Amino acid sequence: MPAYAIARLRPAAPHPDIAEYIERIPATFEPFGGRFLVHATQHEVKEGTWSEDLVVIGFPGIDQARQWWDSPAYREIAPLRSRHIEGDIVLVEGVPDGYDPTATADTLRKALAATD
């Protein structure tokens, strides 16, 4: 099942460390099957507000995403970003092919019925 590293990053002033981080990050996730799915692209806000940048890196599975995050190569360059850009980063599993959200709705309906 695919997994994703998702970052919601607040705007930051340009800095040489950030440029170096951007140049070096692909080499850290490629050994784990990672690839950019969203990076430095424009977005269109449909509800609420969103002034941050969004980065999504796809991985074959959650184990590979965790191995990348914990890898010496990524830990070495992470401060280049974190010293200059604040944000929120999560690792999350995707859903399997053929995912049907009705099972989640059924679980919710059962929980609601139990509270009546």
From TrEMBL:
Gene3D superfamilies for this protein: 3.30.70.100
Cited InterPro entries: Dimeric_a/b-barrel (IPR011008), DUF1330 (IPR010753)
One matching Pfam family: DUF1330
Residue ranges of every copy of the DUF1330 domain listed in the record: 2-95
PANTHER family, per the entry: BLR0684 PROTEIN, PTHR41521
Name of the protein in question: DUF1330 domain-containing protein
Species whose genome carries this gene: Streptomyces tendae
Lineage: Bacteria, Bacillati, Actinomycetota, Actinomycetes, Kitasatosporales
